[in-house]
Amino acid sequence: MTPVAIDQQVNGHSSKLDKKPITTSKVASPGDEQLVLNTIRCLTADLCQQYKGGHPGTVMGAAAIGIALWRYEMRYNPLNPEWFNRDRFILSAGHACLFQYLFLHFSGYEAWTLDQVKNYHSPATKGSMAAGHPEIEYPGIEVTTGPLGQGISNAVGMAIASKQLAATYNKGDLKPIDNKIWCFTGDGCLQEGVGQESISLAGHLGLDNLILVYDNNSVTVDGRIDNCFTEDTSAKLTAQGWHVIDVYDGSNDLAAILEGFDKAKQLKGKPTFLNIRTVIGYSSRKANTGPAHGQALGDEEVAYVKTQLGFNPEDKFVIRSKAYEYFSECKSKGEQAEQEWNELFRQYQAKYPTEYSELNRRIKGEWASEGWQDLLPSKADLPHAAQPTRKSSGIVVQALVPKFNSFVAGSADLLESTFVSFKDQVEFQKPESGLGDYSGRQIRFGIREFAMVGLGNGIAAYQKGMFIPIMSTFFMFWIYAAPAARMAALQQLRFIGIATHDSIGIGEDGPTHQPVALASFYRALPNINLIRPADAEECMGMWTLALDDKSKNTPSIFALSRQPVPLLPGSDRSKVQLGAYAVHGSEIEDPQLTIIATGAEVARAIETAKQLKSVKKVRVVSMPSQRHFDQQSAEYKESVLKQSSSLVVAIEAWASYGWAKYAHASLSMHTFGHSAPQQQLYDYFGFEPDHMATKIDSWTTRWSNKGRLPGLGEFEELLLEHVQH
Amino acid sequence: MTPVAIDQQVNGHSSKLDKKPITTSKVASPGDEQLVLNTIRCLTADLCQQYKGGHPGTVMGAAAIGIALWRYEMRYNPLNPEWFNRDRFILSAGHACLFQYLFLHFSGYEAWTLDQVKNYHSPATKGSMAAGHPEIEYPGIEVTTGPLGQGISNAVGMAIASKQLAATYNKGDLKPIDNKIWCFTGDGCLQEGVGQESISLAGHLGLDNLILVYDNNSVTVDGRIDNCFTEDTSAKLTAQGWHVIDVYDGSNDLAAILEGFDKAKQLKGKPTFLNIRTVIGYSSRKANTGPAHGQALGDEEVAYVKTQLGFNPEDKFVIRSKAYEYFSECKSKGEQAEQEWNELFRQYQAKYPTEYSELNRRIKGEWASEGWQDLLPSKADLPHAAQPTRKSSGIVVQALVPKFNSFVAGSADLLESTFVSFKDQVEFQKPESGLGDYSGRQIRFGIREFAMVGLGNGIAAYQKGMFIPIMSTFFMFWIYAAPAARMAALQQLRFIGIATHDSIGIGEDGPTHQPVALASFYRALPNINLIRPADAEECMGMWTLALDDKSKNTPSIFALSRQPVPLLPGSDRSKVQLGAYAVHGSEIEDPQLTIIATGAEVARAIETAKQLKSVKKVRVVSMPSQRHFDQQSAEYKESVLKQSSSLVVAIEAWASYGWAKYAHASLSMHTFGHSAPQQQLYDYFGFEPDHMATKIDSWTTRWSNKGRLPGLGEFEELLLEHVQH
Questions:
Q1: Between residues 170 and 209 of chain B, which touch chain A (CB distance below 8 Å)?
Q2: Nearest residue on chain A to B123, judged by CA atoms?
Q3: CB A191 within 8 Å of CB A225
Q4: Per the count of CB atoms within 10 A, which of A132, B13, B455, B688 is most buried?
Q5: Is CATH 3.40.50.170 correct for A582-724?
Q6: Mean pLDDT for all residues in chain B
């Protein structure tokens, strides 16, 4: 039971880990800890080997960190994984999920039986929880990670959530929120831009409830990290406003890890970064190599590891009772912590009934009481002059955000342009900044779109339903945030994404800022609402849809115009949830032509309809959400589009991709955009009503001559040749 | 003609810029420089005011930096903007394009007349070059910027390109490549993750030909940067392996700027970061505020600025002859530099004819001589055992990359999994690392997907056609890189993107790693080839298509399988360029059913076709590229799909979005994926041939009973209910 000798050369620090016994000052039985370490290493080797795959190295190298976290440092109750004031643990290095699964098992999460852990990399058996990356659905998993770097942003979001709640609800010595956020990162997450954006913002905000644990094993899939990453990470984090603690032998020196963690919990004013050097694949001869990262060790090497660690190479999945005993007090400690908190919360209820009531409602995931829809102005009360839909959306921000503490709203440096600022807003800032305090609900994310949405996911996941983050930037830059928006959809986390300046309508900024294809991604993505309202009235419906309980598990992105659009006589907020409806000519029972349009193009479509010569019975359909339209009955769809008897054409200043499902033809963008004032761009790309009417007239004439509707393969893009000019 | 007094408080450094004359040790006439500075500030105010928009502040604040760059430091020939050995200037803060346009005008780029600069924010008049962000098409613009952060990555890419060429071709004292790469960045680009990823990698690589000029004005759209960004950037860059030079009064102290630049040009072993504090909107009373960043100053303030700077507020666009004279030697210096280089290159030709010949061919944008297709194995010589398409793609990497110096190939830490390593590869590394040298063509991008592709764009843009970067990661992580891939398509820069593990076929990694919707984005995006080959033979066609001259201005992404697929009897490399063709049953003239499939699903589609009971005459079409199929004639399309007479169904393990254009129904993914071995996932989601055959049989039976083909609105997703289990 002696660890193998391994030369460790990490970032210039060398230490000979030669048969060094594990050290800790906290407990009396270092022998037990060595047993636990060895058990976890052997188990890991077995678990990967049984499926000849997986990521053994990090678990074997960082096992002592896991002991420190689950056995000593973190506050949680394995018997009630959802206990509100628990510490949150986020495994940003999601591929090392086995690390988390094993410690959930040992610390007493009942669902995480050994059989369940053995499901790692297993068939899709019903009820299997041990996925290849940790998934939020399962006990003890706070957030789904895997795409590297995003776990750090989620953790920063959780730290914001906790700070914001504490500043809002904690009173004197009654502090129902005082937990810590622990994030475990590898080398990869620190290389990813989203990790760096998040680190920068966390340092700025001084989030001293956040502890970032760097498993610095300096090895990735492709081998030694010094082939691509040689910066001085500790110095960098210091420059970014973090406390930094270095630990030099994280595979053995439990005492140093514990000392570091204890210190991190005490440090104030800044988040803390623990740079813990470990040896990937520790105790295998593959230690310190790329293969230890992402491959099973192989039968021979598994046997070697077991022999080295005093286990019988013939026996698999061996856990001696002492190993379980070592973790036995996790449950009692957790139960006691929760009981003490329950008592505190009872006192809180007695002393602060109003705050208690709100907090308790929010813990249950309810953001508002009934009737919030009535806070929105009626159509008659909406501005009747043309205005941008981004501004109309802001009416709802003003109406709701100040009133409900569940909302936090912020922007990636476009607060006013995106209309997410609100009355009497307080910035979420460290009080010493003089700019705001931690009770603030307006977050300045900086020019960090990806981190913004990653943070939002963390805020939304902190206690599901407790927060609704509102986040904004130009629609084009939702491409920077797309990897995080996808993770929200995957995890069923609700956010509101404000995506303004949503087309060539942004004008002078030019093609780099004009989205053409991005909507296709969001429309194809499962479980996300991409809503593009035609006017202020549809903006009311859009918000109502996104905030309705039906959208509780679904993020929404609102694509909004920079340019003004008129309030349409036929628009109807109640129909946004249907995805599409006749906004003009609904009285026509047997249209010859149906024009579908979205957003700022709807008013143009109505103008176009009026100018048509070839057909007189024309309907215009506003389709703010393809996704919601798809969910309607066949009868409803036919009643709106009349596609079995009328020609259908779509008008949208984005790519035509996807429109063949709804229309026989489209007027679309065929190239990237251009730099010019928006009105001239609509002309330049062929979207002026008179031009569109000419195009449609010629097309409808052609098809009425044919005496049938176009079939598959006959979809046409009526502005295609317009590219040339 | 005295600058206004402004209190400057930047990152803790305070300096009173009170009527301080501009200082420089290099020239004799500081008065002229002050005139030039003032001229540029007044011109900027006028140029923005004429269209009541734009970004005046940076230009006014950083004008002295512009003087230093164009008048003193950079080597270029305004009379030949494409001179090969020129320094490259990249404006990462693309919204400040007026900065670049004005200095291109003053330094003598003939195309950049004052009238042309006045087109800034103008109508889309033909030939207008002064777009709202700089665009690569125009003289003196190396790369299109605007989406923040990416300019830094482009600059790092250019520095890599220059280093790699120098190491490859420079000989003794004959060095045809010895230029510098200058990148101008604002606060935003330094906050963006892609900027940080690129900075980290540039530091690692020790690119001492790169100078990053930070216009540290500490103000963004939303105001003072200290509301979200308070890190010590200089210390951070030091920690990341950069030389750092601080300049404290960049709006006036030209001497300090020049001293910094001179030093930066001499420093060795690391890239240099110049942290230059400036005052945004300098000389306006809006200086140091958010509005100075992105709004015209207003008539009154424009008049104030002019009065302050000794100009008549009534006169617009005033340029005194002394201002032009000041820049007059830029042309002669540039011409002389080019002539000297031409002489050097003649000597080089005489002494190193082989290297000269290759370099000269590459300068002209030709990567290979005729006949390179013959280097690929014939179908008979391809492995006949099933193998992953990622591995088949690697056959081409091995066949071509070692032979042609135009290729650089690398990965975001998945070199072996994506099969982009090649025989006798040398890593692109600083020689001191012991890992490689700058002649290396294998780049270790680290876990930085976005920067990888941003760098690739810089490499591709260095001298168009000179390099073809090959970059790889899992397909899912092409979502991290999507903002840069889009910029390649927009700029018509060719790269080869290797996107492996392209579906649920990745298996155990689970839903976070399984793309469902991403293909819809790339298919909708203009000017990019998303190619998903069915087998090794189609891999040959895919590479041939991407490397053909027809794709010279188009990036390609190859979606490749993790799992093995058989070599299909009917596959044909020559047909990949057609986008789709009958891979099975092509002899059937009148199919009852046509099945379209892509990638790894094609073999499953053929199996499914064989198991169908309801229809016997079934064709299977492989559609590796929707984009190329769209470009074919109506006749060809009908000949392949027979859609006017046969039912058409698509099989693809991605979302159905977009398939209604080609098929009456699809078998698609309707949710995110799952963690399990890939074969079980295909079953879990309904893609086993027997299950698909059952679904299709029931559907075709239904429609043959109806006696007609489905019309618009009758598109069906045949696995939709499969979500539920």
A1: 187-188, 191-197, 200-201, 203-204
A2: A676
A3: no
A4: B455
A5: no
A6: 94
Segment A476-484 shows an average pLDDT of: 98
The residue of chain B with its CA nearest to that of A437 is B227
| Dihedral pair phi/psi, residue A606, rounded to 5° | -65, -45
Query: What would the pLDDT profile of A64-73 be if each residue is shown by its tens digit?
Result: 999 999 999 9
* Contact state of B658 with A444 under an 8 Å Cβ cutoff: no
Closest among A193, A274, A192 to A237, alpha carbons compared = A274
Do residue A655 and residue B525 have CB atoms under 8 angstroms apart? yes
What does DSSP say about strands A581-584 and A593-597: parallel, antiparallel, or unpaired?
unpaired
Q: Which residues of B are annotated as a binding site for thiamine diphosphate?
A: 95, 146-148, 188, 217, 293, 477
Q: Which of A105-119, A290-304, B398-412 has the lowest mean pLDDT?
A: A290-304
Q: Is B676 on the interface with A (CB under 8 A)?
A: yes
CATH class in words for B372-565: alpha beta
Which residues 372-401 of chain B have a CB within 8 Å of chain A? none
Distance CA B458, CA B453 (A): 9
Which of B128, B413, B417, B668 is the best residue to mutate to test the A interface, defined by the most A CB atoms within 10 Å of its own CB? Answer: B413
pLDDT in tens, B257-312: 999 999 999 999 999 999 999 999 999 999 988 888 889 999 999 999 999 999 99
Contacts of A182 (CB under 8 A, 6+ apart): A69, A73, A74, A87, A88, A89, A90, A155, A211, A213
Helices A56-66 and A254-266 sit at what angle, rounded to 10 degrees? 60
Give me the phi and psi of B652, to 5 degrees please: -160, 135
Confidence of residue B219 (pLDDT cuts 50, 70, 90): confident
ipTM for the complex shown: 0.95
pLDDT at B289: 87
Q: Where do we find the tokens 């230690």?
A: A287
Query: What fold, for B7-335?
Result: Rossmann fold (3.40.50)
CA angle A26, A27, A30 (to 5 degrees): 120
What is d(CA A694, CA A697) in angstroms, rounded to the nearest whole number?
Answer: 5
Q: Is the pLDDT of residue B2 over 70?
A: no
The CATH 3.40.50.920 portion of chain B extends over 582-724
Query: d(Cα A639, Cα A323) in Å, to the nearest integer?
Result: 67
Q: Where in chain B is the domain with CATH 3.40.50.970?
A: 7-335, 372-565
The answer to whether the CB atoms of A435 and B227 lie below 8 A apart is yes
Active site residue B449: yes
- Asked if A532 and A467 touch (Cβ cutoff 8 Å), the reply is no
Say yes or no to pLDDT of A724 above 60: no
Handedness of CA A415, A417, A422, A423 (dihedral sign): positive
d(CA A557, CA B700) in angstroms, rounded, equals 38
For residues A424 and A439, give the distance between their C-alpha atoms in angstroms, rounded to a whole number. Answer: 12
Q: Is B509 on the interface with A (CB under 8 A)?
A: yes
| Cβ-defined contact of A191 to B447 (cutoff 8 Å) | yes
Residue B124: both structure tokens together: 């889309």
Give the residue-averaged pLDDT of B64-89: 98
Q: Taking the CA atoms of chain B, what radius of gyration do you get in angstroms?
A: 29
| Rama region for B12: left / alpha / beta (φ>0; ψ in -120 to 50; rest) | left
Mutate to test the interface with A, among B521, B631, B659 (most CBs of A within 10 A): B521
- How long a stretch of residues is chain B? 725
Nearest to B674 by CA among A98, A365, A411, A119: A119
Residue of A125, A135, A141, A191 to mutate, interface with B, max B Cβ within 10 Å:
A191
Q: Which residues of B touch A476 (CB under 8 A)?
A: 147
- The angle formed by the CA atoms of residues A603, A400 and A358, to the nearest 5 degrees, is 155
